[in-house]
């Protein structure tokens, strides 16, 4: 860790532990951190720029800012999701005998935040916590497909990075893939991010009907076949449905995606556009 980062984090921890509602002035922060006031001031201004710290206009004291609340709520949400998902992942692995994963998105990336390993000694493992663009692999495409159409347009405009020969890098191909995922409710990938890896994943929704994650399995290509695909798809979709219900989703709720029994419409972006 760089020295500057250590200094910045030490300031943040001091404010978190000692500031309270009234905050702390620069002189106290300098004394507690044993840093020059000029250094403390510079670090505080950077934190203010990103809303990590807030400055009281009357006292000029510094206290925790609104962005930390947002980050904390997100972290708590991920912890709740992970805890709720674990028995579902364990069941999915028991049924399929394959590694199962829970994936969430952060910006343009998908992140594995939980995993249950199957019994096979030979497997394809993605690095736990790795961050990969959303157009690569079933677990991430199952999230990307249910983003707002304008969001997807902006994502594509940034460029589609290639990892393997099977990575989808053509916008028209990705849009057709998204239509298929929205219609069928699951995603499949064949060696799009890692060689010899086949993925099957389905979206997980919360009480609002929003897609908050995906759940799926990664299978070594030599263990996958078209004959096995329907069974894996059914098992993964069932697991996603169970986890969605645990997160408060009700398909029967008025206005909920899928409440009418019809596939989600593709939206204006996919009606002859793109």
Count every helix, treating DSSP H or I runs of 4 or more residues as helices.
8
Assembly state here?
Answer: single chain
Helix fraction, binned, reads: 40-55%
The domain tally reads 2
Spatial strand arrangement across the major sheet: 5-4-3-8-7-6
CATH superfamily of the largest domain, called what? GAF domain
Q: Which structural class do you get from the secondary structure elements?
A: alpha+beta
Tertiary shape: elongated
Order of helices and strands: HHHEEHEEEHHHEEEH
Counting DSSP E segments of at least 2 residues, the number of strands comes to 8
Residue fraction in strands: 15-25%
Describe the secondary-structure layout.
Blueprint: H1 3-18, H2 26-33, H3 37-49, E1 53-55, E2 62-64, H4 66-96, E3 99-106, E4 109-116, E5 131-133, H5 138-144, H6 149-157, H7 171-184, E6 187-190, E7 197-205, E8 211-220, H8 229-246
Antiparallel strand pairs: 1-2, 3-4, 3-8, 4-5, 6-7, 7-8
Helix pairs in contact: 2-3, 4-8
Question: Can you describe what's shown?
Answer:
By secondary structure, the chain is of the alpha+beta class. The protein folds into two domains: 3-64, Arc Repressor Mutant, subunit A; 74-270, 2-Layer Sandwich (Beta-Lactamase). It contains eight helices and eight strands; from the N terminus they run αααββαβββαααβββα. It has a six-stranded antiparallel beta sheet with strand order 5-4-3-8-7-6. The chain has a two-stranded antiparallel sheet with strand order 1-2. Strand 3 (99-106) and strand 4 form a beta hairpin. It is elongated, with a radius of gyration of 23 Å.
């Amino acid at each position: 860790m760089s020295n500057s980062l250590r200094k910045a984090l030490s300031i943040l921890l001091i404010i978190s532990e000692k500031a309270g509602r009234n905050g702390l002035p620069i002189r106290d922060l300098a004394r507690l951190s044993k840093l020059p006031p000029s250094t403390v001031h510079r670090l505080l201004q950077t934190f203010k720029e990103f809303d990590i710290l807030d400055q009281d206009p009357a006292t000029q004291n510094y206290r925790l800012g609104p962005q930390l609340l947002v980050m904390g709520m997100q972290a708590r949400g991920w912890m709740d999701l992970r805890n709720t998902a674990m028995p579902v992942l364990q069941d999915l692995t028991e049924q399929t005998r394959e590694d199962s994963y829970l994936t969430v998105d952060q910006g343009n990336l998908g992140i594995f935040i939980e995993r249950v390993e199957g019994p096979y000694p030979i497997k394809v493992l993605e690095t736990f916590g790795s961050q990969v663009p959303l157009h690569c692999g079933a677990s991430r495409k199952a999230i990307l497909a249910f983003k707002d159409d304008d969001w997807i347009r902006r994502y594509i405009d940034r460029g589609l990075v290639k990892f393997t020969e099977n990575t989808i890098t053509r916008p028209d191909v990705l849009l057709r893939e998204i239509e298929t995922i929205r219609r069928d409710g699951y995603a499949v990938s064949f060696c799009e991010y890692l060689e010899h890896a086949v993925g099957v994943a389905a979206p997980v929704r919360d009480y609002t009907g929003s897609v908050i994650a995906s759940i799926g399995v990664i299978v070594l290509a030599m263990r996958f076949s078209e004959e096995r695909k329907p069974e894996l798809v059914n098992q993964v979709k069932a697991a996603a449905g169970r986890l969605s219900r645990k997160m408060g989703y009700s398909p029967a709720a008025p206005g909920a995606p899928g409440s009418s029994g019809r596939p989600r419409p593709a939206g204006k972006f996919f009606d002859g556009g793109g």
